[in-house]
Design a protein that fits this description.
Oligomer: single chain
Helix content: 25-40%
Number of helices: 7
Order of helices and strands: EHHEHEHEHHEEH
Strand content: 15-25%
Shape: globular
Amino acid sequence: MEKPEKQKNVPEHVGVIMDGNRRWAKERNIPTLEGHLKGYEKMRIAPDWFFSRGVKVLSVFAFSTENWNRSREEVNYLMKLLKKVIDEDFEELNKKGYRILISGRIDELPGDLPDGCQNIINKTKDNYKCTLNICLNYGGRAEIIDALRKMIKNNINPEQVHEGLVRKYLYQPELSDPDIIIRTSGEKRLSGFLLWPGAYSELLFLEKYWPDFEEKDVDIILEEYINRKRRFGGDGKEN
């Protein structure tokens, strides 16, 4: 299947740290789990907003390796939402022509979630319209550690190690680096999201919580990106 052309000046790859579900619920005096449900509902529709504007890859931070430290009730609920994505939302995404990738330590997920994740990856692997990369049980340091472990297992000599080789051992080596990474909720840190691929990504921090994210925010993000001048630490030439 031929890949469609990317619209001019639109970032090819956007990363989103979907933050603020719990604070959104707290400010409304409703249970935390309702905040996660609202965040899940927003995650279902947000990819369409980005892809309809020419973005080809959307990476979303769905569950980090640190999130296991939350209460058992909250973790169990988040796992139920993830299973809902796998069991109920997958077919709709597939019909839209989206390729689904899942990045992280998938094998450590409970129950039949690992098999479910692999099933989604396999069934959408030939879809080239757009790519939704779900970072699940993901950590940037964990990704680098896992890459090093695989290199050691493959008996890579120190003299052979270079940036291109390390990239080949990351979770999704075929994806382009994210052009811009957005975090909602007002927090101004990456929290380990795409540490290696995002080394030169533009960063944008939105004050609103993820459940309040709207389609018009995508236009704000794209306009901000287009107006920035990317130099990548080189000779000062703009990109």
